[in-house]
Structure formats: structure tokens, C-alpha cells
Amino acid sequence: MAIENLQPIVEGLGVAGAPLIMAGPCSAETEEQVMDTARQLAMGGVKIFRAGIWKPRTKPGGFEGIGSVGLQWLRRVKEETGMLIATEVATRKHVEEALEAGVDILWIGARTSANPFAVQEIADTLQEAGKDVAVLVKNPVNPDLELWIGALERIYNAGIHRLGAIHRGFSFYGKSIYRNPPQWHIPIELHRRLPELPIVIDPSHMGGKRELVGPLAQQALDMKFTGLMIESHCDPDCAWSDKNQQVTPDILKIILGSLVVRNTEQTTESLETLRQQIDKIDTEMLELFGKRMEVAREIGQYKKEHSMPVVQESRYDGLIKSRVAAAVNMGMSADFMKTVLQAVHEESVRQQVEILNK
Ligand code: PEP
Ligand code: MN
């Protein structure tokens, strides 16, 4: 089904030169924390304030959100700062209470968008309420574009025309520099399929670390996504949830100020796409190096247990020969491949020696 005739999430934002920026704490914790953060963000020019009231947690025992009382704090943010307010909803009760409190933008979290029953319940509640509210649907935790589109369709079918998507990366098992690695080709394909749909990027949940927020935000703008949702807290180190990825409003201001919004008149699009591919390949390469080193350490452990020396010359020579030949076949120089393999081998040896001396 077509998702068309959409209206902007917020008039005047998300258009060229004016990305839609939403910022605020992962969770509303206390009235003071909410107001302090909100005032600073508003002074820094942020127009949309986000805060989680109901928090889906991976394991029981974490902070599950302050609950309904937080809605009154958001209301106060709206009255005192003029910012629009946004929160996450996952159930009928959440939607009803958020609408009642005048929340302007609802978002559906990644764990909820993966569940069609939950999304349909939200859609039904929205349809019954018949209010003009904006709804953003985060990608499901798993990289399933159809499931994501299905969730968007359910909300759209409920009569929501101020609709958008949020890419927050996908969960995975293993090691990565990201908390939820982005898979840019998925939102890019979403854009191809639903060209009218605004797509916001959430670098905070993607990166999981403060230092990745800026670079990921720049990548998002380079790819011409509609906007950014960034977690910001007046005292991140003391945050009750997601403290490693939250930045102070001051830092957020610096990050936003340093972002380059590309001139849409210039046709650098294909160059950007190619650079994105390079970024993606480099990340994959790093992850592969990481995996290779893990295996090398396992081999180191084996050698230790069997009192074997770290380097076996014959194995090393054979490895270099076959890899260099393959590289030459692929159009790379033999020297280049030798240099790379030598560096990789040196690092493997270093890792194995570490294991041996443990
Ligand atoms: C959030 O935005 O605070 C959140 C819980 O995000 P996600 O659903 O992307 O994990
Ligand atoms: Mn969070």
C-alpha cells in the first residue's frame, strides 16, 4: 500500500538546510533534571524535546521509567520553553495518557516496532483518539525492512499523516564499535520505497558512546536524512539509563554547530554515496580484523597448552604466497598485499605472545 500525502512532522523543519533536531534525556528522571536539561536545550536552539517516560529494558531490575508523573514535567517543558515534546509509547495506556498530556510527537521504540500486535494496538488507539499527532516509528531491533514498513503502514492506516521513521541501528551478537550498528542501505531503501517519508537518525543509540554521536550525525546529514534524535542530559555521568551515550546540552550545541549541512544545489550525491560505501567497508574490515585477532588468540591458547612456538615459518610462508597470488589476481600489487599481511601477522603474533605470557 502507498504511504503518501504526508505532512511535515513539524512545519519548516526537516527541509534542506534545516534538519529536524530532537534532543533530550534518554529518561525523564526527576522534575529538576527534566527542567534543567530542557532549559539549556531550548537556549541552545533545540525546538523538540524528547524524554522517555516508559522505558523498555532488556532485563528486569533496570530503571523502567518514571511513569505517568513524567508527563506533567514534559507539559511544564512545553509551557515554559515553548519546545514541542516527544515521548515513547508502547501500549494503549501510554498513547491515551500521552495524548491527554498534549505530547506533540510520539515515537514507537525499536523493541515495540518489531511486534505487530503492539503496533496495531497503538494504531487502534490513535485512530479512536482521532488527534493530529506526529508519530515516528523506530526501526525494529532486527534488520527487517518489511517489518518496519508494516509498522509504518499500520500507523498510517490509523489516519496519521504526520508520520516518520527513525533509524537507530540494529542489534547484533558479537563485537562492534557500535552499540547498534547502522545499516545505511536499509533506510536508503526505505527512502526509495517511500520517498515522502521523513527519516530521522538516532546516532545516540547507534553509537552507544558520546564520541560517536558527532561523526554519526554528520554521516546522517551527508546522506540527506531529515533530521536527528540525540540524547542529551544535564549530568550524563549520573544518568539513570544510557549514560555512556548522553551528551550535555553544551556539548550538543558544539556538535550541532560543527555539523555541515550540505548545499543541496550541489550535485555531490554520487560522491557521498561512494564515500558511504567506503565507510561501511572500512567498518566491516575493522570488524573482520577484530574477528581474525580473536581466532589468533584462540590459536595462541592452543599453542600454549601444547607447548608450541608462536611462529611456524612454513605455515607463514604458505599463507603469504597464496594470499599475495589471490590479491594480484584481484588487481592489487604484490607489495601492497605483502605489507598488509606482514602487519596483520605481526599483530597476531603480538596477541599470541600476550596469551603465552598470561
Ligand atoms: C530511546 O529512544 O530511548 C530508546 C529506548 O530507543 P530504542 O527504542 O531505539 O532502543
Ligand atoms: Mn536511551
Give an overview in words.
With 358 residues, the protein is α/β, with parallel strands linked by helices. The protein has 2 domains: 20-258, TIM Barrel, CATH 3.20.20; 269-356, Up-down Bundle (Chorismate Mutase Domain, subunit A). Helix content is 50%, strand content 10%. It has helices at residues 31-43, 69-81, 92-100, 110-113, 116-129, 145-157, 185-193, 203-207, 210-222, 249-258, 269-305, 313-329, 334-356, and strands spanning 20-24, 48-50, 84-88, 105-108, 134-138, 163-167, 199-201, 227-231. Strands 1-2-3-4-5-6-7-8 form an 8-stranded parallel beta barrel, surrounded by 5 helices. Helix 5 (116-129) packs parallel to helix 6 (145-157) and helix 12 packs antiparallel against helix 13. The longest helix is centred in the last third of the chain and has 37 residues, at 269-305. The chain starts with 19 loop residues before the first strand and ends with a helix. The structure holds phosphoenolpyruvate (PEP) and manganese (II) ion. Manganese (II) ion (MN) is lined by residues 26, 205, 231, 241-242.
